[in-house]
Amino acid sequence: MSRVFLLSPARCDGKRAKMLLNPTATFELARKIRAPGGAPIGEVFSFLSGLYFRGKLAYATAFGEPVGGFVITTDRGLVTADTLVTRDDLLAFSNVDLATAGERYVAPLRKHAEELASRIEGDSLVVLLGSIATGKYCDTLTAVFGRRLVFPSTFVGRGDMSRGGLLLRHARDGRELEYEPVVGAIRHGKRPPRLERLR
């Protein structure tokens, strides 16, 4: 059974965002996003949000097709993790508030989800690597994928850092997590024990 991974958008660290968007920054990634060709969105979001997105990307690369999965954007629906983005693209993403964006956010996400649903096999799982606590991703995606939309059951109750660490460990060890359908799932739960430090 094949798995397609959907990675929720990066939650930006303000200091990292300022570093990356600084027009005089000289480190490689900052130079890339200022160039016409841009830089892969997976690499950019990993820098902006740190451990959580880095964990999602590593896990989707280890277990999914396409490699790295699809990244959910604020105004362009689903894009592959190797899609190139520029500084202007990042500024456009940051100007969209998911809480108030409405169809500007939902319409392209729904369109791309429907296109994806028409391409994948009927028994394929669509794995959401992101929060199911709110409807900002789940409502649109479950309307398209139904019970094929699943999430790692161990995500319930964990914070972003814990989820990122968990995903990195499983990607490194080649051990896939267990999933359950988003439809009917318990979306809030007791916080699990802390993860042991990576060695």
Structural description of this entry:
The structure is a single chain. The protein is of the alpha/beta class and 199 residues long. The protein is 44% helix and 14% strand. Strand 3 (70-72) and strand 4 form a beta hairpin. Helix 3 (41-49) packs antiparallel against helix 4 (51-63), helix 4 runs parallel beside helix 8 and helix 6 (103-119) packs parallel to helix 7. It starts with a strand and ends in an 18-residue tail after the last strand. The model has no long low-confidence stretch (mean pLDDT 88).
Contiguous helical run count: 8
Q: Level of helix content? A: 40-55%
Q: Which range does the strand content fall in? A: 5-15%
Inertia-based shape: globular
Order of helices and strands: EHHEHHEEEHHEHEHE
Unreliable stretches covering 5 or more consecutive residues? none
Q: Calculate the terminal CA-CA distance, rounded to whole Å.
A: 32 Å
**What class do helices, strands and sheet pairing give?**
alpha/beta
The number of E-state strands comes to: 8
Any idea what the radius of gyration is? 17 Å
Q: Main beta sheet, described?
A: 6 strands, mixed
Mean pLDDT: 88
**Major beta sheet, strand line-up:** 4-3-1-6-7-8
Tally of structural domains? 1
